[in-house]
Amino acid sequence: MTERNRSLVSATALMASGTLISRVLGFVRVALLAFVFGNAGLQADGYNLAFAVSNGLYFLIAGGVLNTVLVPQIVRAIKNDADGGNAFVSKIVTAILTIMAALTVVLTIATPLVMIPYSGPEWRSPELAAQWQSVLLIAYLIMPQIFFYGLYVVLGQVLNAHGRFGPMMWTPIVNNVVSIAVLVGYFLIWGVTAPEQSNQPFTTAQAVTLGLGGLAGIVLQALVMIPYVRATGLKLTPRFDWRNAGLGHVFRLAVWTLAYMTVSQIGLMVTTNIVSSASTLGTQGAGLTAYTNARLLWQVPHSMITVSLATAMLPMVARLAQEHDLHGAAGEGLRTQKMAATVMVPATLAFAALAFPLSRILFGSGAGAFDYGFTAWTLIAACVGIIPFTVQYICLRLYYALEDTRTPALQQILIVGVNIALALAFVASPLASPQWLAPGMALAYSLSYVVGVFISWHNLRKKLPDLDSMVIIRHLVRVGLCALPAGAVALAISWFTRGWQDSLLLTVLITAVAGLLGLVIYFGMARVLRVREVNDIVATVLRRGGRKRGQVERAGADSDDEWYPGDDEPTEVFHFPEQSMDDPKTVLMPRIGAELPPAGVALEPEPPVDPGTFGIPDAPQRAAGPLDTTAEDEHPIRVKAGQELGHRYRLERPVVRREGSQSWQAWDSVLGRQVMVHLLPADSAQAESVLYASRSAAIATDSRFLRVLDVVPSATVTEISDPARPLPEADSWPRRSVTPAEPDRLAYVVTEWAEGSTLQDLLRDGPLTAVEAAWLLHELADALSGIHEQQIGHERLNPDTVVITPTGNVKIAGLLTEVALQPVDPHTDDNAEELVDELRDVHDLGRLLYACLLCRWPGGPAYGLGEAPIAGRSWLTPRQVRAGVSPLLDELCDRMLNPTPRHRKPPIHSSAELAGELTRVLAGVDAVAELEQRVRQQRSGQVTRADQRLPLARGIGPAHPPAPTPTTPPTPTRPPAPQIMVRSRSGETTRTAAIPERPPAEEERPERRSAARLIFPALLALAFVLVIAVARIIGGAAPSNEGEAGAPAQQQGTESAEQQPSEPQVHEIVAARDFDPQGDDQTENPDLVGDAVDGDPETAWRTLQYYNNPELGGAKRGVGLVLDLGEPVPVSTVDVLLGSGDTDLELRVPDPVAVDEPPMQSDEDWRSVASVDGAQGQTELTLDPAEETRYVLVYLTRLPANDEGNYQGFIYEVEVSG
């Protein structure tokens, strides 16, 4: 399962589950409507007409604007604005709600006028005057929902932009519950409408009940969103300073979206006008109710799957578009289309096959027992357009993500025009009887999208050239082949049992059997035809019982102590602080040679391995082999910077030079982007193999592979006399003279260029953390699993062909081309010589994991990394070289590199298997943000480079550890300290890296108290004293019950000293977990939590880095650690060892305190019992009175500045006493 598919499935799961429950309740609501009013008649159609008009007006005014235009703008504001988007979002929300409020008032007053276009003229005839007045009364009462729908959607889009998709899909449940309660009340008071009464008007009491009940539901639905928005940390305040606030761009985009919705509403008006007349023609017919119910049915999979997928896709594509990654945006679009089609194709066939039994179950009871067939025929007609509508809907969202609202508006004019033309043609045809109006309108609507989807796709490909229509067509054919047998079986069951469908119970049973059998056939065919998206969905469901999030935390926490029976004894164990991207000055690790010296022998450090640049300092090598040393005038390729290939690709900077080829960074003057160009002599034997390999690499569609853009078998280079794009600075070029290019014919291959840092670059600054290494390997394995299914391998995976972009994403360079350019891998090893394709790639993935954990290359030295240490004929495992390595990753590394893994574990032979193992290890955690920060620091030069660190001896720590100095240096994030001695398992004493000194005690740090910080606690203390005094006065007469559990703390304090312990008892911390309820994924470095409770003052849990504001960037109220004490115990003191720099922290307990599980969703579920502002180093929080609790939250609300000028907190140790 690819990571992009998994991210869509996972992001969709929460939304789809909420939508499913909401839809189930929605069906209960419409089933009650059908039960009470029936499926045809003036009462049923009048009720639906009143609601349809208010809903339609909302979507006309703002629905499309708010649902589509806001997310990209809010994403940009959150990413780029210094305040995290607070000001921009407050202004735009204020502006939209102000406009919505004004328009709602106007429309409510003008309700009789706005109802006219949506209703047939027969409604306003004298014979139906009473019915029309009752419908107007309901419409008056329900019209204010326009404002509350707007409030709901605005807040929902703010949450979506923050990556929180669930609330918007879950809160409609409130609306449905209220609506169901209103209809149940209506039924209990007035009962079921008899068939002969179905055309009678509503009484005033009935109309008021239905209208106000509908309004109450949407009001509550909107208000429920407010706490979720507050939980994001976003501080929304009314802002009316709209001038120069950047809202003009938003409203200019909204103009075309409004035009789109206006055109759509014209089509809706025409359709509603036609179908609403069915019940006014003197006979029952398929009118607005049948049309609405059928539309509700087929929109269930659309709203659950398509809308959820598109909602999850929109922010991702918006971010990719911001980065000008159109290939990635197209890839996300194709993945979303395929995932949606995987569900919508079988759903369409299911609706067509089971239309009548489904309609009988939902709409065939009570007053609807005689007219549910109208809904069934309408649903069958709608099935024609479900797939085109799905494709068109996702295309529409792609347009909006690209901030193009004009094109879809113009396309919608065509779609609505076709819809109206077909609708009017049907009305004029002999088929236009009342019984067929709704099916006819559904068919016209469907056919209009069949026409529109081709135009929309064609125009979208102009913006996203990588949208391959054949990919979608092939997928639809494969899914259709899987679904057709299932649909045929379901149709056969429905047809042959139609005589039994008078019984509701039998109909439910028949439908369930047909549906389940169809699903079994569909999934079986999907497995046979290897429809990957279906298997992804099944795997997601089956994985629900898998490993939980805490697994990575436990792995990290236990890694220092866990030892497998039979593990080889490490000759030397070198302890050092865990590498952190935020702590570049940490001494990372020694260079361990292939042959380890005896303990205690200090050797001189190894010289760093030359990365072999091409005359360019610090240039990435991007090649599997060493550079060629052929003299410049003897090399078969003689080109220079500034020359152009094919009048398009201008050579800018050489990247690598091999014996028979060269690779250059170049500029694509047509598309205006950087590319990589591989040059070879056109008449060379190697050129043919490279060109063939490059064409073959096009089979990889995953955006994590750098694509081949162009393959040219023969061309000449030309000079550019006046280049439009300036060349890079001269200092970045090699100092050499180049003769003018001769008209030699060159073959060349053009591939994508990925901005960022190679893994080789990052590893120069030390190993990755466990989560970073696991996530990086997971991305690589997940991407490779797709090409391995095609029997293709990369075969040159190494730190130089793995690129991490500035956004923290992973790219793989050189698929197939690297092997062709470098047929002999000079850095292979004996274990990999005979391996090919997938097996070779899995082996190389093991070497990459080894390098990420140790900065050592099995088979090295290579890529700037030292040689992996060997014991006998095999490499030492990472845990045998370095203490602190996760045992899970150590085991995976061994299973990839060792033909006979330890502990009788099976070797890993496939990338898909490795991706699955790493999925369980990660349990939903990713390291995008951490890798993004690493790349930024590495590219900005903030990270201490390897050659700037202290010299390190092989295997035993610093050769000459720094002696403590009497002077007081500037306080670093992790201050140096004297080294200590530890004893290895073999009993030999070894040196370890220095443990940082404990930060200065509280009494040593300068006093920092502002007047406000003194006044506020004083007021709180005064209020507390007053409350206690009042409580004592009120409760003073009550008899004291000594020893009672509820005795006041003051009485307990008067007990004899003999009954109280002389010192508080230290409680054991059974477990700990990170607390980040306002984060996007609600995690805050979970793999480091164990470092705060391991008894080691050297290790620490740290927060993420926050920007611009010490109060967690203004994005969160706080983060911290939840401590589990195993059972409720008295807690009077909590000692926290913090880092240097002023930190504000609180101590909290659950509210209420007696809970079985700690509340992790909001800090409002915790009660503050102690706090300290400006704390450093050893900090004591005292509870007075003591609290009896099982869970304690150490909550950081203000963070100190770190060396990079950002804000980050550290907790080295926590101790709880009572």
TrEMBL record:
Ranges annotated as spanning the membrane: 12-37, 49-71, 92-115, 135-161, 173-193, 205-229, 250-276, 296-318, 339-362, 374-400, 412-430, 436-455, 476-497, 503-523, 1014-1034
Biased composition regions of type Basic and acidic residues, renumbered to the chain: 999-1008
GO biological process, one term: peptidoglycan biosynthetic process
Chief localization: membrane
Disordered: region residues: 937-1008, 1041-1096
Any one annotated GO CC term: plasma membrane
UniProt KW keywords: Cell membrane, Cell shape, Membrane, Peptidoglycan synthesis, Transmembrane, Transmembrane helix
UniProt protein name: Murein biosynthesis integral membrane protein MurJ
Organism: Naumannella halotolerans
